[in-house]
Amino acid sequence: MCELLGMSANVPTDICFSFTGLMQRGGNTGPHRDGWGITFYEGKGFRTFKDPNPSCQSKIAELVQNYPIKSRAVISHIRQANRGGVNLENTHPFTRELWGRYWTFAHNGQLTDYQELSLGRFRPVGQTDSELAFCWLMTQLEQRYPEPPQDMMGMFRFLAECCDTLKEKGVFNMLLSDGEYVMTYCTNHLYWITRRAPFGKASLIDEDVTINFQEETTPNDVVSVVATQPLTDNEAWHRMKPSEYGLFHFGELIDGNADQLVDAPFAAMKVASQAPSGSLD
Amino acid sequence: MCELLGMSANVPTDICFSFTGLMQRGGNTGPHRDGWGITFYEGKGFRTFKDPNPSCQSKIAELVQNYPIKSRAVISHIRQANRGGVNLENTHPFTRELWGRYWTFAHNGQLTDYQELSLGRFRPVGQTDSELAFCWLMTQLEQRYPEPPQDMMGMFRFLAECCDTLKEKGVFNMLLSDGEYVMTYCTNHLYWITRRAPFGKASLIDEDVTINFQEETTPNDVVSVVATQPLTDNEAWHRMKPSEYGLFHFGELIDGNADQLVDAPFAAMKVASQAPSGSLD
To answer: What's the mean pLDDT when you consider all of chain A?
Structure first.
């Protein structure tokens, strides 16, 4: 499967540590050789770095690892292709503008019968099920809210209902951000952790790197990281449940439906088995 | 004023040489210290590198200069801010999706009364007159062509008429691309050159760099470069006239209205003088 990485923070924070771990899975400790991308929001603007080449060999990935870009919302993805060829237009994350905001999306999973999804003015450029699902979500959002909603939490809950529909078509783990909020939806593989004072040390699973967050942070920093698999081996990551939706705002998990869900690993396995193993995008 | 750089080629070509010259104008040989950006199309996909920091000091600009990304359509911009603060959301180029294609835009100039332009579903994220004008152009395009037009040349001629309207509001030199075509519109400062066999040597104005294109190309390569100021001092650049529109396709200038226009340097100067000198974005 592909891998997702997201970050939400209350102060501009660099993601070099987590990104370093993720990039190793792009052809080194992981099989995701079919491209990678990362989007950093800075204010209302964003920068996306992407490459259809394996991240473990990418000069651009090397720059991103060594050049700390500080952001309060980040979405990243490394790809193992299933739907759509290995090229730039099929490389996540994808971005569209709605209501004068940039929306960025990355997906892990594989959908069937996604061609039935009716699209409006948002149209995919590439051939992935992921980008088509994103365009469908944006269409639902604009049809429901022609103007920017006041109740942002209600808007994200509406999006979570749309994700419930997509989940019926296969595996749909996703990250979505408008630069202020980071929304997560889980079908089977999504973990999160919130780091805050007192900060400790963390060591990467995929590379022999340890970081002492106490040296990198101030006492008021709150940073949440979301990933399809835990990135560190000495911290307690929360596993999200099937159909679980989460909403992060400036580092804090501010909304979600975890309490309403029963832990259902078997259901999760069943959904996962709908797609060829090892080929989930 | 800011500076624009565009490229259209019949084979994937890197723009390192021209970009190296342009970047020097970002705070070194030129005063454009307020950010820079470059968009490379690869197939239907694109990569944008941008930075609100001066290009002559930018680590990312350094990567782009040394890492040859081959493209058939490129749009680049270095900024000297007038409308809108110095930040990422105000950094050109800007991109939007229409008809399942990514459209990328960069502007040199300054508009007045641009707030009167009525917008549809394309909305600016930042505060520049440039992004607002781009959103207005995209709105005009979608209203006129709800579906992708068959007659692309007619569509670009329609866009040129829209640019005539924008020109009435000030200085509007621009580059626009969908990844296949590169469209240019000139108010006062825009030059172009087409390089083809037999290729010769070229030397940059802004840095002591000479290139022998014969060593870099094959006999069938055709590459056109467009810029607000010539980048080399030993080649014959064509100066575009006020209200001149040009359309490049895979390296060749395939359409334009130059023959219908009188050369009007005084008119150009008059238009230029509408905006404070040295502050054209």
So the answer is: 89
**Predicted-complex ipTM score:** 0.90
Instruction: Looking at the complex, report in whole angstroms how far the Cα of residue B41 sits from the nearest Cα belonging to chain A.
Output: 9
Q: Which residues of B112-139 are buried (b: 16+ CB within 10 A; e: fewer)?
A: eebeebeeebbbbbbebbbbbbbbbbbb
pTM of the model: 0.91
Name the more confident of A221 and B84.
Answer: A221
Mutation choice for A interface testing from B51, B60, B122, B141 by most A CBs within 10 A: B60
Percent of chain B with pLDDT over 90: 64
**Which of B43, B49, B89 is the closest to A43 by Cβ?**
B89
**Domain made up of A3-260: CATH architecture:** 4-Layer Sandwich (3.60)
For residue B130 the two structure tokens come to 């440039």
Enumerate the domain spans of chain A: 3-260
Q: Locate tokens 């960069």: which residue? A: B106
A37's enclosing H/E stretch is strand A36-42
Q: How far apart are alpha carbons B53 and A136 in whole angstroms?
A: 36
Q: What is the pLDDT of residues B222-280, one digit of tens each?
A: 999 999 999 999 999 999 999 999 999 999 999 999 988 876 554 444 444 443 333 33
Q: How far apart are CA A40 and CA A7, in angstroms?
A: 9
Among B46, B122, B126, beta carbon nearest to A45:
B126
Between A156 and B65, the higher pLDDT residue: A156
Peptide bond into B198 cis (omega under 30): yes
Residue A81 pLDDT level (bands cut at 50, 70, 90): confident
- CA B122 vs. chain centroid, Å, equals 20
A170-228 residue pLDDT tens: 999 999 999 999 999 999 999 999 999 999 899 988 888 888 888 888 899 999 999 99
